[in-house]
Design brief:
By secondary structure, this protein is an all-alpha fold. Helix content is 80%, strand content 0%.
Length: 418
């Protein structure tokens, strides 16, 4: 139910961001999450508990669209990737801390109520701190108040860069005014070629991030460890804790690499390692014997998977999705691509154990490896490098691709000079 709520939250989150701004969207997400967390902690019956999970999902889904978008729009292009990746670090670091917090509450009376209720604390802190932060300067400039936007921008850029950024925003504003004559709609995402190409790249990255199995590893790592022959619940949880820690540490490495190595190269390198580790996991389970000879090989495969996934395919999809859409479509496309991520997450989470039961754990990991190969080809063909580029420069990439492929009759955001 949390994943269902996240799907809906992500779907409406794009619209909320465009209509009310990134700051208000964050505050709304916090309030919904807090209500859900308190509702779960105080639940008198399973139905209230399930509804609380749904509310928490709504908040998470909306935040998953809003946080990276807000960070990207308030960041200079040369460090944008690292700052957006920091958001992913907060997620992976939070997953690790949640293991520790839950471990601490196992000895407390009312264990599960504390586990679910304490989740409201970060949301309360964020709500309070967000009140003191400005709105996204790009959203302000184009949607509301130029002078207020310039005040915010002056705190980010030196005078020369400030003038350059305002020039970019003036161009974006002209485009926005042109599009206001025809209201921006979800259908336009598929009708306008350059937007469609951008959405294909962004949504594809989000889908492949999930379909190569990351949340299978995170949700079911204790189960996978036990499948590998480690019957002790305590040892399985301890090894899972190590996996979660590696995920957080790998994300730190990704923060450095994403702006120095590039988004596309990082994704391709990450997928290469993921393919090798999934094949290793598959072989370990296929060759597994009753005495557990290959158990440690499977655990090593899990660790290797995280080591390659966390720096690359963890942060890259979220970073790229904050950069590849024009201002007018950033909210809608960001929300739609995040929805694709959550739907893919739900499909993988619900299908892994049943697939493993039907065909075997080894073949299941081999299927994931095959999907990772397809993902590698997808990134090679459809995803451009956006490292160090302004939003407007990235937008021009899609305009050029739209002009150079297919019929010129399909509308572009701006008339072609040709």
């Amino acid at each position: 139910m949390a994943l269902v709520g996240a799907i809906i939250g992500a779907a409406v989150g794009g619209w909320i961001n465009d209509a009310y701004g990134r700051k208000r969207a964050t505050l709304i997400a916090d309030v919904v999450f807090i209500l859900g967390s308190f509702g779960m902690a105080a639940a008198p019956d399973p139905y209230v508990l399930i509804f609380g999970r749904f509310l928490v999902g709504l908040g998470v889904g909306t935040a998953s669209v809003t946080a990276p978008m807000y960070i990207a729009e308030a960041s200079p292009s040369e460090i944008r990737g690292g700052l957006v990746s920091t958001n992913v670090l907060m997620i992976t670091g939070g997953q690790f801390l949640s293991y520790l917090v839950n471990l601490a509450f196992t000895k407390v009376r009312g264990t599960w109520r504390w586990m679910l209720g304490v989740a409201a604390v970060p949301a309360v802190i964020q709500f309070v701190l967000m009140l003191f932060l400005p709105e996204s300067p790009r959203w302000l400039y184009i949607k509301k108040d130029k002078s207020e936007a310039i005040v915010v921008l002056s705190k980010i850029y030196d005078p020369f860069r400030l003038e350059e950024e305002i020039g970019y925003l003036d161009s974006a504003l002209e485009e926005e005014e042109l599009l206001r004559k025809n209201a921006v709609s979800y259908w336009d995402v598929f009708r306008i070629k350059e937007v469609r190409l951008a959405f294909l790249a962004g949504a594809g990255l989000q889908a492949f991030q999930q379909f190569i199995g990351i949340n299978t590893v995170m949700y079911y790592s204790p189960t996978i460890v036990q499948m590998a022959g480690f019957s002790s619940n305590r040892l399985a949880l301890l090894l899972s804790l190590i996996v979660a820690l590696m995920n957080a540490i790998g994300t730190v490495l990704g923060i450095y690499l994403i702006d120095n190595y590039g988004r596309r190269k990082l994704a391709l390198s990450s997928l290469s390692g993921v393919i090798v580790s999934l094949i290793l996991l598959s072989v370990a389970f296929i060759m597994q014997s009753p005495n557990g000879d290959y158990g440690w090989v499977a655990v090593f495969g899990l660790a290797l998977y995280i080591a390659f996934f966390a720096p690359g395919m963890g942060p890259v999809p979220w970073t790229v999705n904050t950069e590849i859409y024009s201002q007018s479509y950033r909210g809608i496309c960001g929300g739609m691509s995040a929805t694709v991520n959550w739907i893919s997450n739900l499909i993988v989470a619900q299908s892994f154990l049943s697939t493993a039961d039907a065909v075997g754990t080894g073949p299941t990991f081999l299927i994931l490896a095959g999907i990772a190969v397809v993902a590698f080809v997808f990134v090679m063909v459809y995803v451009p490098e956006t490292k160090g580029l302004s939003f407007e420069e990235v937008e021009n990439i899609w305009k050029e691709r739209a002009r150079s492929s297919g019929s010129s009759k399909e509308p572009l955001l701006t008339p072609s000079p040709l």
